[in-house]
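Dear support,

I submitted the protein below through the web form. The confirmation email said the job was done, but the results page showed an empty box. After a refresh the structure appeared. I'm attaching both so you can tell me whether what I see now is the final result or a partial one.
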Amino acid sequence: MNMNKWAKIREKGKQRFVLVNGVLGWGLPTAILWVFLMEFLEPSENIWVRPIIALIIFPIAGIAFGHLMWNKSEKAYEKATSNTL
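What the results page shows now:
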């Protein structure tokens, strides 16, 4: 990870990171991909159930993913910056 890039990202805050990278960057694309894959592999008569479920579940999971990635990146940043001091 580029520590200069992470320093700029962390200045914008954890909430923004979780929203942009977790919900918008992971949750929504994963939901859309899952809906299409499931419809292709196992077609459903009620076409609106899966997208509604996916658009609830995956963004929530994206929040968790964003928090995990933030914490992982913060630990790496702290380790890298403590070695240079």
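Response: this is the final, complete result; the empty box was a page-load delay. The chain has a mean pLDDT of 94.
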